[in-house]
Amino acid sequence: VRALLAAPRGEEAAMGEVKVTRRVEAPAEAVFDAWLDPETAGRWLFATPGGEMVRVAIDARAGGRFEIVERRDGEEILHTGVYEAIERPQRLAFTLQVPRYSPNMDRVTVAVAPDGDGAVLTLVQGVSEGAPASPERIERGWNTILDALAATVERGGEEG
């Protein structure tokens, strides 16, 4: 009886993961590489309209770390993690932590598949129990980030 009462139900059970899919009008290789190139990632990954990118450090290898720091309202917000898998151009897996908001470290996987002249990106983030943001808020955040990714790589394709 105690186990049944303690088991997650309803909304709590849905806290397991967030999945977001986005079609991008750019080759799969360009979409994938945008995650690992510091200059490109600094233009879109965890960037906010009013923020100032302070540091983008990416050690793009399995076991390598990343640190992306943006200044928001005078405060430096660190996004950090470790790459678990880098399989160009189809799969990227990494841990993600934003210490300012939570001690939790969640797992993110990114799958990129060619789709005609573009690519389809599917991102899945595990959501830790007690996460400070709801799955809906996390999903909105990733959609905003993937919109910025698409704008960056689609514009890059037109420029050269």
Note poorly predicted spans: 1-14
Strand order of the largest sheet: 1-7-6-5-4-3-2
Query: Secondary-structure element order, as H and E?
Result: HEHHEEEEEEH
The biggest beta sheet reads: 7 strands, antiparallel
Q: Helix tally?
A: 4
Query: What Rg do the Cα atoms give?
Result: 17 Å
Kindly state the number of beta strands. Answer: 7
End-to-end Cα distance, whole Å, is 64 Å
Summing up helix and strand content along with how strands pair, one would put the structural category as alpha+beta
- Choose one word for the global shape: globular
Helix percentage: 25-40%
Describe the structure.
This protein is an alpha+beta fold and 160 residues long. 27% of the residues lie in helices and 38% in strands. The protein has a seven-stranded antiparallel beta sheet with strand order 1-7-6-5-4-3-2. Helix 3 (38-44) crosses helix 4. Residues 1-14 have low confidence and may be disordered.
Helix-strand layout with pairing:
Elements: H1 2-6, E1 17-24, H2 28-33, H3 38-44, E2 52-58, E3 65-72, E4 75-87, E5 91-96, E6 106-115, E7 118-126, H4 135-159
Antiparallel strand pairs: 1-7, 2-3, 3-4, 4-5, 5-6, 6-7
Which tags fit this structure?
alpha+beta, 160 residues, 7 strands, single chain, 4 helices
Summarize this entry quickly.
By secondary structure, the chain is α+β, with helices and mostly antiparallel strands. The protein is 27% helix and 38% strand.
